[in-house]
Amino acid sequence: MADRRIEGQEITVKILAIEASGLTAGCAVVCDGKLIGDYNIQYQKTHSQTLVPMLDELKRMTELDLSTLDAIAITEGPGSFTGLRIGAATAKGIALVLDKPILPVPTVDSLAFNLFGTQDLVCPIMDARRHQVYTGIYEERDKPVRLREQCAVSVEELAQDLNERGREVIFLGDGVPVYQSVLDELLKVPHRYAPGHLAMQRAASTAVLAGLLYEEQGERCLVSSDDFRPEYLRKSQAERQKEEAQLQGRMASLAAGRLIRDLEAEGRKSER
């Protein structure tokens, strides 16, 4: 797909964004940075139940002609393994049918963009289980500026990093209710927590940030539906359990091999 931007000529850029990386399912449409529609749900249903009906409703209410889209934006991760896979499958399916590219947006960047305009550090935290969070540390300028790349770390390591920076920090994300008491105990810097309407992933933030990325990078930020892969940052529990089982199996095989060799050696000794 050739770059559509032509010097001296205004080009309309329309992006459909899909959010499924955390507890919230959402979709949004932006046209030249203007938010046309935004639909978010966080209520007792799985993303597989909500995403497609939400997309249909958004399309109907905004009278969206899907053929006019320039890209499908999707939060690429990190986040819920199941949510990321559902979001990726939905985005890839739409992109494939429409022959449109995908614009990946890092989940933690999108979360940080919720707090655009603050003078304090922004620290999104998503519960990664095993006493870890998916996180990053940001300053807000025209868009989130990373001071620490998105990563999976312990809450203790994150608190130490923030204490060393010595600046006031705002937290948001689904990790807040899980680790707020721990953070309150560990942090020596002033800190606070985003209000409910800004605390979770929002498709609108993903959509507008995707538009900024496209404006800045052009089609360098786009990938084909075949090439897009979620960014998990670490292996899923099922993958870890499989590897542990394989390791235990190899160790058992080695132990059995040693036992057989020892028995054979004992047999040879007794024959003498």
Protein traits:
single chain, 272 residues, alpha/beta, Nucleotidyltransferase, domain 5, 5-stranded mixed beta sheet, 41% helix
Instruction: Assign a percent range to the helix content.
Output: 40-55%
Q: Spatial order of the strands in the main sheet? A: 3-2-1-4-5
CATH topology call = Nucleotidyltransferase, domain 5
Radius of gyration: 24 Å
Q: Please trace the helix and strand order, writing H or E for each element.
A: EEEHEHEHEEEHEHEHH
How much strand content do the residues show?
Answer: 25-35%
> What ranges have pLDDT less than 50 throughout 5 or more consecutive residues?
236-249
CATH 2nd-level architecture? 2-Layer Sandwich
CATH superfamily grouping = ATPase, nucleotide binding domain
Average pLDDT works out at 88
Task: Please write the CATH class name.
Answer: Alpha Beta
Question: What structural class is derived from the secondary structure elements?
Answer: alpha/beta
Largest sheet: 5 strands, mixed
Domain unit count: 1
- The shape, in one word, is globular
Give the distance, in angstroms, between the N- and C-terminal Cα atoms. 79 Å
Compute the number of strand runs.
Answer: 10
Q: What is the overall number of helices?
A: 7
